[in-house]
Design a protein that fits this description.
This protein has helices at about 185-190, 315-320, 365-370, and strands at about 5-15, 25-30, 35-40, 45-50, 55-60, 70-75, 80-85, 95-100, 105-115, 115-120, 125-130, 145-150, 160-165, 195-200, 205-210, 215-220, 225-230, 235, 260, 265-270, 275-280, 295, 325, 340-345, 345-350, 355-360, 395-405, 410-415, 420-425, 435-440, 460-465, 475-480, 485-495. By secondary structure, it is mainly beta. The protein has one domain (about 5-495): Methylamine Dehydrogenase, Chain H, CATH 2.130.10. Strands 1-33-32-31 form a four-stranded antiparallel beta sheet, with no helix packed on it. A four-stranded antiparallel beta sheet has the order 2-3-4-5, with no helix packed on it. The protein has a four-stranded antiparallel beta sheet with strand order 6-7-8-9, with no helix packed on it.
Length: about 500
């Protein structure tokens, strides 16, 4: 039996701003008992006093926009706050700003294009920034993706930056299961670092390459990408999903479709001295004015020897509505598709330190949300539309946090669309076990109803260990980008 968790909301801070990213990324400063929350709407980092976690209080703001367009991510180490800041246009290089606890700017350094995530090594010697390098809408400018490694060993005022790019992989064969999402792009342009996890010793980082369906393994001191790993493709004929928003409700079953895992968040944890990674397989397509890979199955010319017409798989109630990529699946170049590749694994996976997948949750997230909230299955987050996301990426697991509660290691998975947080006991990384699900969204009203709608669209999460918690108990802080709320949950073993 899994060690089940009871997850209950303790306190909430609500901005009242709907669907503008008013609460996205959250991080916790144990020294000041504060949360730092990226507020994309106000272009600030909001500071919340959680010394009483049942009553979150505003304690100030950091003006990230003074250094660029807006803050995109925040991290803290021993009172030093780092904020990743995008430029305008986003294809230009961004900055990483360092602030003290009072919000005073201490230093700012140049990083890569479209910095989207920042984290510190556990010892605080380095700050790492994932520079996604997204193209402009016309796809006429496509900056390279990279990871900036900011050396802080000489003090924040003397910070230096090295850039780990992917140019060394240009013109070379890709690892199996990794993909170029934009045909004709170089590897260095097409790789889009999304999220970073760091080893306990602060020497290795694992970086998700979401659109590319892989991860990169980085040596931190030398700022070098040592290896890229393709995650491969999920065989939905051996698992199950609901691929249609026109099939009358919950219809989870095997289908002749492959899934690109395409993880967003990643977190590292240790079991018996070995490092493991948990990834949230949200999925993401290249969909721009200048290039889009998205289409629906019903619009493709399918190979009739693989997909017999009499099975009517292109009907809306079957696979017809499912969004897939046009860049893969025509195996022999005859213009007909022999394989279908959908976006996202609708799951979380566990990898070993080399990037090999040792576990995937299969269809568990869809099945458990269908049981817990049958009338809200695959609902959207900006409107109440049950089954509305089945043809896209389902519940869209996006955020990940890992932490220990009462001696048991848990992974927490945020479901961006239907909402809520799943908890799994990962003490045995090859056999995670479901431990609980909490959803503090009110489906009786539309999401734009404000506070009455509850918590909608979980984005960033921060686990707060008991040892550094303001109330001496383990907590989970979650930013909800659609409702603009930040909520703290208590975490207690089920008696």
């Amino acid at each position: 039996m899994a060690a089940e968790l009871v997850m209950e909301p303790l306190g909430t801070h609500a901005t009242g701003i709907f669907d503008e990213g008013a609460s996205e990324i959250v991080t916790y400063d144990a020294t000041a008992q504060r949360l730092y929350v990226v507020n994309a709407d106000a272009k600030t980092v909001d500071i919340l006093d959680i010394s009483d976690p049942s009553r979150l209080k505003e304690a100030g703001k950091l003006d990230a926009a003074a250094l660029g367009k807006q803050g995109t991510s925040v991290a803290v180490h021993d009172g030093l706050i780092a904020v990743a800041i995008s430029a305008d246009p986003k294809t230009a290089n961004g900055k990483l700003g360092f602030f003290d606890a009072q919000g005073k700017l201490l230093n700012a350094v140049d990083v890569g294009a479209n910095p989207d995530m920042v984290t510190f090594t556990p010892d605080g010697k380095y700050a790492l920034v994932a520079n996604e390098g997204e193209p402009n809408d016309a796809y006429t400018v496509d900056p390279v993706g990279s990871v900036s490694v900011v050396d802080l060993t000489g003090g924040v005022e003397n910070a230096t930056v090295k850039t780990a790019g992917f140019e060394a992989f240009d013109g070379k064969p890709l690892p199996k299961g990794l993909r170029i999402a934009k045909p004709g792009a170089t590897v260095s342009q097409d790789m889009e670092p999304e999220y970073i996890a760091v080893s306990k010793d602060g020497r290795t980082a694992w970086v998700t390459l979401q659109e590319n369906n892989g991860i990169a393994i980085l040596d931190i001191p030398s700022a070098t990408v040592k290896k890229m790993v393709g995650l491969g493709y999920k065989d939905w004929s051996k698992s199950a999903l609901d691929p249609s928003n026109k099939d009358g409700g919950v219809r989870i079953q095997p289908w002749p479709v492959w899934g690109m895992y395409q993880p967003d968040s990643i977190a590292a944890f240790e079991v018996d001295g070995k490092t493991y990674l948990v990834i949230a397989n949200e999925g993401d397509a290249r969909d721009y004015d200048g290039f889009s890979e998205e289409t629906r199955v019903k619009k493709l010319d399918l190979d009739p020897t693989v997909f017999p017409p009499e099975k009517n798989l292109q009907n809306d109630a079957q696979l017809g509505r499912l969004k897939v990529t046009t860049t893969m699946g025509d195996e022999n170049g005859d213009g007909k598709y022999e394989k279908l590749y959908a976006f996202g694994g609708r799951s979380f996976s566990i990898l070993d330190a080399d990037g090999a997948m040792i576990f995937d949750s299969g269809d568990d997230l869809e099945r458990r949300t269908a049981r817990a909230l049958p009338g809200q299955f695959n609902n959207d987050n900006d409107e109440n539309k049950p089954d509305g996301r089945s043809d896209d990426k389902g519940p869209e697991p996006e955020g990940v946090a890992v932490g220990e509660v009462d001696g048991v290691t848990y992974a927490f998975i945020g479901l961006e669309r239907i909402g809520g947080i799943m908890a799994y006991d990962v003490s045995d990384p090859a056999r995670p076990r479901f431990a609980g699900y909490v959803n503090t969204r009110n489906f009786k009203v539309e999401p734009e109803a404000g506070k009455a709608a509850g918590d909608v669209g979980p984005e960033g999460m921060a686990f707060i260990p008991a040892a550094s918690s303001p109330n001496g108990e383990p907590l989970l802080a979650v930013g909800f980008e659609v409702s603009g709320s930040t909520t703290i949950y208590s975490l207690k073993p089920k008696k």
